Amino acid sequence: MPVDDETIQVYNARSSDYAKITTDDAKSPELGSFIAALPAGSLILDLGCGPGHMAKVMQDAGHRVDAVDASPDMVKLACDSGVTARIARFEEVNGQNLYDGIWASFSLLHAPRDAFPDLITQLTATLKPGGLFYIAMKLGDGEHRDSIGRLYSYFTEEELLSHMQVAGLVDPQITRGSSIGLSGEEAQHLTITLRKPQNA
Asked: Is the predicted pLDDT of residue 184 greater than 80, yes or no?
């Protein structure tokens, strides 16, 4: 199963704490650029929407947002903020040419490493030709639990870029940085915005 149940329980138990430390994420310049690059009234998949901070910004910008998260407590917070959110695991998102954009901000790092390539291919299929795929991941190797019990899959920059491009995505725009998350541990991270070719 591509989402670890223990990880979901951590997010259920710490949903309010997570909402507090991620409030400023809604002010991200990358989110602003992503929103601006999409056609007016786009349909965006916010995959792992958490408490809905970023989905709310997309929605307020005039886009339609399919906000999903595997944590029921996170979905409740998102709905309470005015976002239409639903409970769904990664593998439950499928279809063809549905979305103008996919926003996966530090969510797919909870998918098992061996399931990751097929999951990226499955998600790319849900993008319309010309659609944008944004992904943010922590950098590293292997699978490990953090100090509060969440299971992470880590990739190097080269591995992550390869998986995205093998799925058919092009024109990668990369940013690098570091951040301190819910566990209090600092980690190096990478974000990539790619596009599905018009002729795909």
From this structure: no
User: What pTM value is reported for the model?
Assistant: 0.93
**Helix, strand, coil percentages in the chain from 3-state DSSP, rounded to 5:** 40, 30, 30
Tokens 């995505």 sit at which residue?
169
Contact partners, residue 72, CB within 8 Å, separation at least 6: 12, 87
3-class SS of residue 1: coil
pLDDT attached to residue 160: 97
- 171, two tokens: 């024109």
Give the E-state strand segments of the chain in sequence order.
Answer: 43-47, 64-69, 85-87, 99-105, 127-138, 142-145, 151-154, 170-180, 186-195
Tokens 């093998």 sit at which residue? 166
Among candidate residues 100, 50, 47, the one with its CA nearest the CA of residue 80: 50
Confidence (pLDDT) at 91:
92
First to last CA, the chain: 29
CA–CA separation, 164 vs 171, rounded Å?
Answer: 11
Q: What angle do CA 136, 153, 142 make, to 5 degrees?
A: 130
Q: Which value, in Å, is the radius of gyration of the alpha carbons in the chain? A: 15
Closest C-alpha among 156, 69, 163, 157 to residue 116:
163
Q: Would you state the pLDDT for residue 128?
A: 98
